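Box S2. Input/output pair 1.
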Amino acid sequence: MRFPPNHLTIKTVVALAASALLTGCGATAGNAPPTAAEGSRPTPGPTSSAAPTSDYEAPVVAGLIRTAGIKESSGLSASECQDVLWTHNDSGNDALIYALSTSGESLGTWRVEGAQNTDWESIATYRDPGGNCSLILGDIGDNDENRGEVEIYRVPEPVASTGTASADTEPRSTEPAQTMRFSYPDGSNNAETLLVHPWTGDIYVVTKKESGPAGVYRVAPAFGATVPVVGEHVADVSVPSQPEGLLTGGSISPDGRRVMLCDLQAGYELVLPDDVSDPDDIWLQVPSPVDLGDRKQGEGVSYARDGLSLFASSEKKNSPLYLITRRQSY
């Protein structure tokens, strides 16, 4: 990934008895929509006004990501079939995925057969109506915005456990990945956020913009198509941060009613109102800031399997894995 020019990272500090000082990221599952009733920070980077919201407790460190091969946890997604987190590195690395426990311990490494890592930036999980789980990998990074088309891979989710942890030094192989080529209707874009909606299986790619809002594109999951699938621009989204569209990760909650986006600094949650059932209406909601922890270079965020908490990761080796729990009253 690349940082935008001329933006300083600033952390909000509140003094108890003094004047204020300068103020300083796919998990999805389910089958059908519910009814309406139912470390130091890098510079340069964005300035964020994010602070803990009433919806979530303060972040706690669930563990450290010590897997030797994980240099930059560029994407993060919680499985919907097992208590496992999945992550990967970005450009310049092999086509490998890493399984972690919810405390950051290694559960093994897999090579994604039939895939290449040009610039993997995001991962999401999807559980189909038959209960089968798959991993969706977004090779969607394009810092120079010169890729006419990008790739999205889908692979059956491997079963991970403490018994597969030895695969760190000798990676296992996944089943062959299905590939979908994807292009934007308005030219090349850089993106680091890929989401899969649990109600429909549709894929959403959210762009990363150094100025202005990020674009949201819906992509039909036409894996194996012989021609590139053209995404549909369904919305623009701005978060309460500067830059407003420099988004680096995201996740959709298992019930499909919440979207968490993140930049390098913080998280921003959109919530679909109870009386609304169109999933695209969530992009009309106002994002609320959420503290995702003191991440050095935050790019990975995922709702937990139960949908009641969040996990957040950072690039850099031996980075902390944060757990952010939603308050029970919500």
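Box S3. Input/output pair 2.
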Amino acid sequence: MVGTKAMVPPADRKAAISRRSVRASRMICTAGWPPIEIDGGLFAARAVQDQVFGDAFDMAGSIGGGPHFITFANEKGGTGKSTTAVHSAVALAAQGRRVAALDLDTRQRTLGRYLDNRAATMRRTGVELPMPIHETFDPAGEESLDAVLDRLGGGVEFVVIDTPGRDDEVSRAAMVRADTLVTPINDSFVDLDLIGEVDAETYRVRRPSFYAELVWNSRTQRAKTHGASVDWVVLRNRMQHIEARNMRRVGEALSELSRRVGFRIIPGLGERVIYRELFPKGLTLLDLHEIDHVGLSHIAARQELREMVAGFGLPEPGGAAPMSRQAAMAG
């Protein structure tokens, strides 16, 4: 666990947070926010954030000053999860931050293959590119996930974890380790259904879906185990650049659900062919000097990437606390 090298909250404070998280999992209601049935209990997201995780949010961006874990997770495939993860890892490395990346999808290995291609490009061209250390987790190997994360986390500021598009024990363990949990979704009701059911007539949110319950359980477990919580960020990938009625309805439903369940919403990466074209060389939009025929679409995509990473609200260099949620969203 991270605590092998890091200080943990004082025992009395940690125990208090744990007791509060257990009480909250049974029933927490706040005036103005309808309670939501999850895992046999009632909760309102604003109360959860303030009452259960408030102390944890006041801490630094990771447990006791260890590396900040950023887990990209979504049980639905095709949402741009791995593309977003690898671009985020490289973007942080380009800022001069010390970054490690771990691919948990041993079958597809999109993040691992992307960074392998990047390393091959560096060897072939002799050009130095921002590069995180990386590897792919082998569940059949001798090292446990915790051991791999502890090893990769030694001497780095961030560990980026890319999970497979399915629910399994390894993915759930990665969610519990997350300081920042990023759930990329396409801008559609099909993807929104992963976290919330929408009424077919009114397009209002009826209730959270199974994935919201899974994140809730992970947050509760993390609060009890580490005395810290998870900053859940829902990333709207492939947003249309032209305002459309469906886009507006999805946005309104997400906004309502975010207030009730407790996540932040930030824009992600648009639907651009260039992201797919960069994979063979392992390049990103921050490597424009290595890309042939750079156009305005590349410049716009690079700005999207920078704004997305800023929106995560990650800890600043030197261990400074992360920027506020409001500042992150405004960025």
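Caption for Box S3: The chain has a mean pLDDT of 78. The longest strand covers residues 180-186.
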